[in-house]
Amino acid sequence: MDRYMIILPHTQGDCVMALKQIEAIGMITHFDWGCKDNDHTGYVCLEAESKDQALLSVPSFARSKAHVIKLNKFSPDDIRAMHPSKQ
Asked: In whole angstroms, what is the distance from residue 47 CA to residue 9 CA?
């Protein structure tokens, strides 16, 4: 499975609805929230088979606003392969 970051922006007016719907699908403790700092955004990293599957962790009303980003890691060898040093 791949790892994805989901960024879920919402308005201050939609905040309570977003939180309640995330809670209803059992994901409330998985998300981190910026709402108390006036950044009405939820953030979560999770494993999924695809972007579409990852998006299922977001309530349907907010899916069109959500950003789903496939994450990867780089090793030092990966970096050297991308940027061969001139010798």
From this structure: 20
Contact 41, 34 (CB under 8 A): yes
- Ordered alpha helix ranges (H), 1-87: 15-24, 51-55, 76-82
How many Å separate Cα 8 from the centre of its chain? Answer: 7
For 80, the token pair is 């050297």
- Residues β-bridged to residue 8: 42
All domains in the chain, ordered by first residue: 2-82 (3.30.70)
pLDDT digits (tens, 9 = 90+) for 21-74: 999 999 999 999 999 999 999 999 999 999 999 999 898 888 999 999 999 999
Tell me which residue of 14, 54, 56 sits closest to 35, measured CA to CA.
14
Cβ contact 1:47 at 8 Å? yes
What's the pTM?
Answer: 0.84
